Amino acid sequence: MNTTSSSTIAEMARNAKAWPFKEAKQILARLESQDRPASQPVLFQTGYGPSGLPHIGTFSEVMRTSMVRHAFSMMSDLPTRLIVFSDDMDGLRRVPDNVPNQALLAQYLNCPLTKVPDPFGEQPSFGQYNNAMLKRFLDSFGFEYKFLSSSEVYRSGRFDQALLRLLNRYDAVMNIMLPTLREKRRATYSPFLPICPESGHVLQVPVIATDAGAGTITYRRTDGVEVTTLVTGGHCKLQWKPDWAMRWYAYSIDYEMSGKDLIDSVKASRKIVSVLGGTPPLGLSYEHFLDQDGQKISKSKGNGLTIDEWLQFGPPKSLSLFMFQKPKTAKRLCFDVIPKTTDEYAQHLKKAHALGMPELLENPAYMIHESQPPQISESPSFSMILNLVAASDSASKDQLWGFLQRYDSSLDQDDDWINRLLDHAIAYYKAFIQPNKVYAEPDDATRSALLELAETLKIIAADTPAQDLQQVMFDIGKAHGFDPVRAWFSAFYQVLLGQSEGPRAGSFIALYGIADTIKLIEQRLA
Questions:
Q1: Which pLDDT score, from 0 to 100, does residue 294 have?
Q2: Could you tell me if 253 and 65 are in contact, meaning their C-beta atoms sit under 8 angstroms apart?
Q3: Which CATH architecture has domain 6-151+158-180+240-286?
Q4: In the prediction, which pLDDT does 2 show?
């Protein structure tokens, strides 16, 4: 598809307008101003709090960051790495609504997530269950990443030097954090959260003394007892904003994106990493996904669409396209976006193979497939296949293939792309369309128009093109006084398919077949 040299592609990538290229260009510009070894990898990071089942928003951050990483790799030969960091040492603050055995979890409130039992009984802890689930999703999409567990890293001593540095700059960090807190919270706030050796709880208690030389803090428990503990070796963890900054410093992170609701947190963490002597990373501030009620999706609530659900009803890379599109715009993440996004994905794939550089760089399929978009067959759209399933009320792929091959005899029944669309369409129909079908009773105008349509179809050729059938529909709608004419098309779908809308009616009639459309009209009018 493309024979352009790598140096030319790199130059074109620097001038590309798609958002991953713009982000990557900023990273490259900053690196070119720094004195760093060529062998030092450029580090991308995403963070995840496994206090609830991983939702699609967590997955999207890894996917979008991977897109920026790939765009950067097209511009530069510098090595890159992606860190997926799980804050699984955080304490369980509340029991999620969408997990079993809630009474069991309630007994472990404030314990590190890797010390909370797995309510599903599959992993040693709840944190590890959620980590495993996220890694399974990431692996299914072929992401290249290094997964790090907060519990393991803290206890290994990997963060010890950074923790001691933060302890040494304790007052400066407090001066950054205290103005961001409410008055009541200021009285007990400390960036260090000691792990109680008796209860195992992650404690939010006031620190009354620090000793940078000894590497210790002294805190007062709720029972008034004063305790001195090391801040290293997993005896303490950090509040999440200082923790975020400490990770940036410890790993020298170059890029990490975050949601718009964290803008103030990013500002505070950037100040802290500067106090530690590090350089804050670059990053994109993205909008969140919304559920069908317009509410932000949440791990603890379990609202919104899950990754597994999307993969049941749509191709994996259609999900990638949804993540790629307009990251700075809040979008509803509901089942009804899957058919439209699937069709858009197929259109981008088909167009990609007709494009040359640099236009190809602006095609989403090029980025989604990391510069190797596959070829797919010409086929009816996913929306059209959904309507075919709805009209025939069929879950039989053999029957559906009969319609498809009558429509286009060149379609191969072993075609993987079409078969996947059929599987997704059948699943989607059973879940969302069939249970909600409400057939409209035709009024006099609609009945008259449908009768004329049936009579007209009886006298035209079986292989009449879709565009001619569309014109037939339009002419009948006009003749029967539908104003606007789209009201006629809507009535067509409401009466025949029990749904309010569909793709172009002419294309549907061509795919379903003229003879079968006539039968369908007669059955519904009877």
A1: 75
A2: no
A3: 3-Layer(aba) Sandwich (3.40)
A4: 54
